[in-house]
Amino acid sequence: MMLLCLSLSNGGFLEINPMKLVPAIVDGRFKLFESHAILIYLACVFPGVPDHWYPADLFRRAKIQSVLDWHHTSLRRGAATFVLNKALAPALGLPLNPKLAAEGEKILTASLSKLESFWLKGSGKFLLGGNQPSIADISLVCELMQLEVLDDMDRNRVLSPHKKVLQWIEYTKDATSPHFDEVHRVLFKVKEMLKTLRSTESSLNKKVQSRM
Ligand SMILES: N[C@@H](CCC(=O)N[C@@H](CS)C(=O)NCC(=O)O)C(=O)O
């Protein structure tokens, strides 16, 4: 199986995902894009994947699907809009957009409250009250990991009121260690890069102001 790291406009990649988005996989002659479809495929295609990742039981499976669909219209919409417009845009050659960042933060904050009060309700460590993680925990925690690239102050303002969410992120990290750190290595590189960019910009601004 190939996890693709090609340029998104590369002709080869377009054959795999004409939408020009990651993630996408190739398993033999089978090509697939859309993160949740990929997670479901991976949980089913290999024999011996523990049942808790994507349970055979139809009712538990349907509930996981329900979380995954909610993720795309709520948590993802808020987190991706906020992070792109508040921090990530310069790394992609785009301008920051404070208005869109504020809109994204509002959606994200409302989604975090719902996550805490509904999907994480009860005493279980994971989503839907489970004591073991499912593919939904992977998808939703992964979405929130992108907040790492924000300035610490922005990240804390959004995340720190949600203690249960923070605890659940830690449980999911522990349950998937050491792979968790491995898959997020690139993210931490981007975090360092943006930190350097921000501090260079702020010292340049100070120099300009002191000369005015
Ligand atoms: N619904 C898709 C969304 C995929 C998506 O938006 N991917 C982003 C990265 S998270 C991307 O490839 N962005 C590159 C671009 O927009 O050029 C999924 O869940 O796979």
TrEMBL record:
<protein>
    <recommendedName>
        <fullName>glutathione transferase</fullName>
        <ecNumber>2.5.1.18</ecNumber>
    </recommendedName>
</protein>
<feature type="domain" description="GST C-terminal">
    <location>
        <begin position="57"/>
        <end position="193"/>
    </location>
</feature>
<dbReference type="InterPro" id="IPR043377">
    <property type="entry name" value="GSTT1/2/3"/>
</dbReference>
<dbReference type="GO" id="GO:0009407">
    <property type="term" value="P:toxin catabolic process"/>
</dbReference>
<dbReference type="InterPro" id="IPR036282">
    <property type="entry name" value="Glutathione-S-Trfase_C_sf"/>
</dbReference>
<feature type="domain" description="GST N-terminal">
    <location>
        <begin position="1"/>
        <end position="50"/>
    </location>
</feature>
<dbReference type="InterPro" id="IPR040079">
    <property type="entry name" value="Glutathione_S-Trfase"/>
</dbReference>
<dbReference type="InterPro" id="IPR010987">
    <property type="entry name" value="Glutathione-S-Trfase_C-like"/>
</dbReference>
<comment type="similarity">
    <text>Belongs to the GST superfamily. Theta family.</text>
</comment>
<dbReference type="InterPro" id="IPR040077">
    <property type="entry name" value="GST_C_Theta"/>
</dbReference>
<keyword id="KW-0808">Transferase</keyword>
<dbReference type="Pfam" id="PF02798">
    <property type="entry name" value="GST_N"/>
</dbReference>
<dbReference type="InterPro" id="IPR036249">
    <property type="entry name" value="Thioredoxin-like_sf"/>
</dbReference>
<dbReference type="GO" id="GO:0004364">
    <property type="term" value="F:glutathione transferase activity"/>
</dbReference>
<dbReference type="Pfam" id="PF13410">
    <property type="entry name" value="GST_C_2"/>
</dbReference>
<dbReference type="InterPro" id="IPR004045">
    <property type="entry name" value="Glutathione_S-Trfase_N"/>
</dbReference>
<keyword id="KW-0216">Detoxification</keyword>
